[in-house]
Amino acid sequence: MVALLGLLSTAIGLASLVLWIMTLVKMFTDKVDGSVVKGIFGIICGIYAFIWGWQHHEKYNRKNFMLIWTALIVVGLLLNVMLQSMAQS
Question: Which of 34, 53, 54, 71 is the most exposed place for a label (fewest CB within 10 A)?
Fold first, then answer.
C-alpha cells in the first residue's frame, strides 16, 4: 500500500513539474505581462509561477490547466501527509 501511494505521489509530482515548466515557458514568451526576469524568478520561486499562471489564465485560456495544476498540488500534499503518517507508524 505504501509503495503504491509512493508511486502515485511521484507521478503527481512529475505531472505538477511539467505544468510548472509549461507555465514558465509562457512567462518567458509573454512580451506584455512576462519577461526574462519574471521567468527566472518563477524558476527560483515556484509559487510565483503558480500565482502568475492564475493571474493570466484568462489571457491564455488556461483555466482548466490551472485547475488541474491546483488539484495536483492539493492531492500531492495530502498523499505526502498520508505517506508520512504511515511511515511513522
Answer: 71
Q: State CA 9 to chain mean position distance.
A: 13
What confidence tens digit (pLDDT) does each residue in 38-86 have?
A: 999 999 999 999 999 999 999 999 999 999 999 999 999 999 999 998 8
- How is residue 5 written as a grid cell? 501511494
Q: What's the rounded Cα separation, in Å, for the pair 89 and 81? A: 13
Please state the pTM of the whole predicted model.
0.89
Block residue for cell numbers 498540488: 73
**Three-state SS letters, the chain:** CHHHHHHHHHHHHHHHHHHHHHHHHHHHHCCCCCCHHHHHHHHHCHHHHHHHHHHCCCCCCCHHHHHHHHHHHHHHHHHHHHHHHHHHC
